[in-house]
Amino acid sequence: MSIADIKKNAESKMGKSIEAFKVELQKIRTGRAHPGILDQVHVEYYGSMVPLSQVANLSLLDARTISVQPWEKNMGSKIEKAIRESDLGLNPSAMGDLIRVPMPALTEERRKELTKVVRHAGEDSKVAVRNLRRDANEQLKKLLKDKLVTEDEERRAQDDIQKLTDRTIAEVDKLVQAKEADILAV
């Protein structure tokens, strides 16, 4: 494995870490409706649990309401029950074969709790990035120990990995700040 391979590997893994963090942030509910909030809801469909998006069409009716249109008529009650029993605190209501999921307004206390959750998720993401940096640096040290690279090359590569880590952590901080602003906006 060469220095370029180690850098490329670290960069791709840090990119995946950022993508995973973005997905995690989408699950955290703000005051506005977003169909992605229902991604973690699973419904029983012919004996197996499947994601809601595989049995219904999810869309927005307005800024605070998600509409769920089941593809099969008999799924309406199961979908409604699954949304109600999820830990999202949502109360769906059926109107014919359309299920409306209104988003309750967030209380000030709940907003503060959610910002703590966002910060915690950001810290977890930063720890993951730092672990990737550590792994890359260990691989560089192994190359140096095996005398496959010079000390100068190893030092430069470590500096590049550190710059990549700093950029990635700055991006995580930016995402955390944006999500906090989104949550605190009334």
What's this, in brief?
This protein is an alpha+beta fold and 186 residues long. It has 4 helices and 6 strands.
Record keyword descriptors for this entry.
RRF_sf; two-stranded antiparallel sheet; Topoisomerase I, Chain A, domain 4; 186 residues; Ribosome-recycling factor; Gyrase A, domain 2; elongated; alpha+beta; coiled coil; 4 helices; Ribosome_recyc_fac
Would you kindly provide a written description of the structure presented here, covering whatever features stand out?
With 186 residues, the chain is of the alpha+beta class. It has two domains: 3-27 and 107-184, Ribosome-recycling factor (Topoisomerase I, Chain A, domain 4, Orthogonal Bundle); 35-102, Gyrase A, domain 2 (2-Layer Sandwich), CATH 3.30.1360.40. Helices cover 58% and strands 16% of the residues. The chain is built from four helices and six strands, in the order H-E-E-E-E-H-E-E-H-H. A four-stranded antiparallel sheet has the order 3-4-6-5, with helices on one face. Strands 1-2 form a two-stranded antiparallel sheet. Strand 5 and strand 6 form a beta hairpin. Helix 1 packs antiparallel against helix 3 (108-145), helix 1 runs parallel beside helix 4 (151-184) and helix 3 runs antiparallel to helix 4. It starts with a helix and ends with a helix. The model has no long low-confidence stretch (mean pLDDT 86).
